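Weekly puzzle thread! Below is a chain. First person to post its structure in token form gets bragging rights.
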Amino acid sequence: MESSDVELDLQRSVQAVLRELSTQAPALQSNQGMWRWSLHKKVERDPGKSPVLVRILLRELEKAESQDLRHVIIPLLHTVMYVLTKATGITEELYQRIYAFCTRLLTLPTPYCTVALDCAIRLKTEMAVPGTLYQRMVIAEQNLTNELYPYQERVFLFVDPELVSASVCSALLLEIEAAQAQQTPETCMRHVVSHALQAALGEACHAGALHRKLQASPRRTLEHYFHAVVAALEQMASEASPSREGHVERLEEIYCSLLGPAAGRCGGDLVQERPPSIPLPSPYITFHLWTGEEQLWKELVLFLRPRSQLRLSADLEVLDLQGLRPDRELARVSVLSTDSGIERDLPTGADELPAPGSPEMERAGLQRKGGIKKRAWPLDFLMPGSWDGPPGLHRRTGRPSGDGEMLPGVSRLHTARVLVLGDDRMLGRLAQAYHRLRKRETQKFCLTPRLSLQLYYIPVLAPEPPSLDTSRTVDPFILDVITYYIRMGTQPIYFQIYTVKIFFSDLSQDPTEDIFLIELKVKIQDSKFPKDGFSPRRRGVAEGPGAELSLCYQKALLSHRPREVTVSLRATGLILKAIPASDTEVSGSSHCPLPAAPVTDHTCLNVNVTEVVKSSNLAGKSFSTVTNTFRTNNIQIQSRDQRLLTLSLDKDDQRTFRDVVRFEVAPCPEPCSGAQKSKAPWLNLHGQQEVEAIKAKPKPLLMPINTFSGIVQ
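Winning reply:
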């Protein structure tokens, strides 16, 4: 195909993607993402089309910038970055233009500036050291062992077995197994070496000869060149001012050593041929049917266990990595000293002491050491990311927590990407598991220092029909969509988790506590609970439908000033929504998991009460219903007559509570934020010593769900 025909074909595909992003028709949205997937497949089959596609996408991005078509900027930018990660042969001039475009986006509000900054950082690294993005992604996702880049990732795919049919589960398993069967460590190392050499040397690299040489190389030779290439790229990327010329020279030496003196600039005139495709392997994915809230914790511990004990620092030796039993005694954060507290009582050799008779030795005899060594973890240490935005937003957005050392000697080398497929019930169960995990971490503290946890969600709105063909013919669309979302969904939205305390009509039954993320639905039961004594009702007085409820809540105000409201009314039911269904969708997410919140939405529950209104006319008394809506930070609801209530959390039949007389709802606090703070003692005007103690306001527990764009303003 001629170059003009190639450009015309890619231009048509890009225009189809733009129409897909701009349309609101449900018929077209059902196949959303298909055009973008086919576009990536065209480039994957013929890598030579990558520079042409990048130029077309950049042209459309610049047009969207000039015409202020912001809804297409982030999707197109993600597409460009995905192509650049896999491509070779991109000119430096093209990199500079894309980098300049990203820097111009930094003046826009979030999430545009946030996504642009992330892209600009990666582009700067790729411009200086070509092939770095591809190499790091493959090493981490495939868990290839390398000391210079020791990061490891794993994707945990959790599926709701009640919603996703067995045939769909079989198809997913078939796709995952087929992909991983082709992605052996040897194959991935060949891809890394070949991609790095082609990205650095460009046309001077004879891709066909290189491919044949790598295919014929034994594992030991392959590992040697793999580590040599990784060392060259990582050492160059770690320099303050990396030299691209020096990087090319180093990789040229490796290339000549691999192919011999008759290669590239080293001499010879090998016949150039069409370069073979270098695929970007799918990440390592484990498939799980969701069985309970303990399952997530156990899988994460098993992910860390093989290598975690080798990376423990002395400060974390007391932590328990084997604690899979929920009733096991929890380790203390402080360590009790067993000595007398006097330094001269220490055994010989415990520390390097000064010479006898020296002034230091005499002072040491009267100096005490602390009897208890306390570890002062930061109060917000367990937060799932660093977010410094203003308080009040219901769903907060920001970048996920990155790698790096959180404690001395302990690096977060592991990243667990947890993806759930399901509906609101599955999200509610994920919130339960997340809350339990965070509660464990305040006591055991073994996952957070070494593990970056990223959460993803793909909604499944209806049970799939059991007619899917499970033959050996595999359509990789589903797996490719999951892979694209995992890699490009870098903007988390933080959702508030709410706690509910439930009181039952049976006084012998203890109150229970639970949490919810989406909604709490209240229904009025037909049955009544027994009441002490007997209060006869006057004849002819109609009781009316529903139940008499007493509502006490704190009204949600933009000023955050407390305003208590108490009201009694008769209602047939009510719904407390933590995530209103009327919010606008997140821009640019062809497979986006969750709706976004408008910037005016603050931390609150949206309460819809179906109130009973009594009216009188010539025919007698009649009743009608009207829906009242208000917002609140927390609420207490109690049945004032003999009617009992039924609570349903997150539309989950397994989390339904009957015979309820009262319940209380409030934002769920961060498990580690309820501690007391005390200031140092000081003297007042009368010379008396005082200690001021203040109670820290509990931080709300927010669950981050990664999306493509975050909250669109």
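Puzzle host: Confirmed. Bonus trivia for everyone else. The longest strand covers residues 620-639.
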